[in-house]
Amino acid sequence: xxxxxxxxxxxxxxxxxxxxxxxxxxxxxxxxxxxxxxxxxxxxxxxxxxxxxxxxxxxxxxxxxxxxxxxxxxxxxxxxxxxxxxxxxxxxxxxxxxxxxxxxxxxxxxxxxxxxxxxxxxxxxxxxxxxxxxxxxxxxxxxxxxxxxxxxxxxxxxxxxxxxxxxxxxxxxxxxxxxxxxxxxxxxxxxxxxxxxxxxxxxxxxxxxxxxxxxxxxxxxxxxxxxxxxxxxxxxxxxxxxxxxxxxxxxxxxxxxxxxxxxxxxxxxxxxxxxxxxxxxxxxxxxxxxxxxxxxxxxxxxxxxxxxxxxxxxxxxxxxxxxxxxxxxxxxxxxxxxxxxxxxxxxxxxxxxxxxxxxxxxxxxxxxxxxxxxxxxxxxxxxxxxxxxxxxxxxxxxxxxxxxxxxxxxxxxxxxxxxxxxxxxxx
Length: 427
Known about the structure:
By secondary structure, the chain is mainly alpha-helical.
């Protein structure tokens, strides 16, 4: 039966499972909102725009950001739409995959997963080129074309490996556990979320950037003193080569335990005074002190359970719940279910994006406030926000829909408002 058809008798069961998944997701969000949320952050109104920025000087920034927001709005549903299209066209490509895999579900899953990585990258390539060209036109992207293409190829290679492995594992589960595969998959996704949050800075970041020790002993000592004040173990301070890619400035904390490194963008050192560099570091140390990576990973891992149950409901609705059986026909059904799984997961991920940005903004507000307490320098925090808007071609007051869907951080005016609150007696 074509993938677009509705299997008789499965709609009601699938709807019941989907309802359980949605209610469960709501309960988990409420629980995590109660237990794993930011704390101690006062309610602060955004600072007035004209007190801190010249509207005329922001005209070019707004033009650049309008282009960025437009491309983001186009790109947000693109992956989901691509995977839905691939699933709908499954009758054209699944037989080839089944033959190539010799009707072995795990092999077919490996091929399908790797193929989906290639297809989604290819479909998104024109938009990726447009983003790169737009950034180059405005000077915020400095990476030469060959280096950009190399990074694109590296990203595709990593994606092929990861999605191929995930496809192989998911296909094997779907073949062997037709009614319970979603449970094991949810556990795997949760473990993967934790693993990537811990290992990505250690394993993936070196593939795309180079670091070297900070050659400023005085600043290094000041930064490590901040880390000690925050109760964060750090081995040393490093500098990465961000300037070969962008003019934007940032910092982050990489590694685990005593092997942590505080890493500064070379653009941050080049373009910002030392008091503002320390403010950026204080903010990043606050993330570590408040365990935001662990908390954020827990959000993702916990929501993987109702998410995978909802995917299971969609797969059952489109393909039924019966065992796939052996041989080419069984393998074809497994691949079909895998394609629907990928499409449903992508649609759910797209629809739930505002939840992720909501959580991120909460943690970023907490880190901003705690960073003020660690640095004790609100004037540096205000100057930093002004400098970041200038250097990153930012907009201090983005439209509400943009902040709702894409805003992972408080706006610059919100952060200046927090600095003013701290300066005027907040603690």
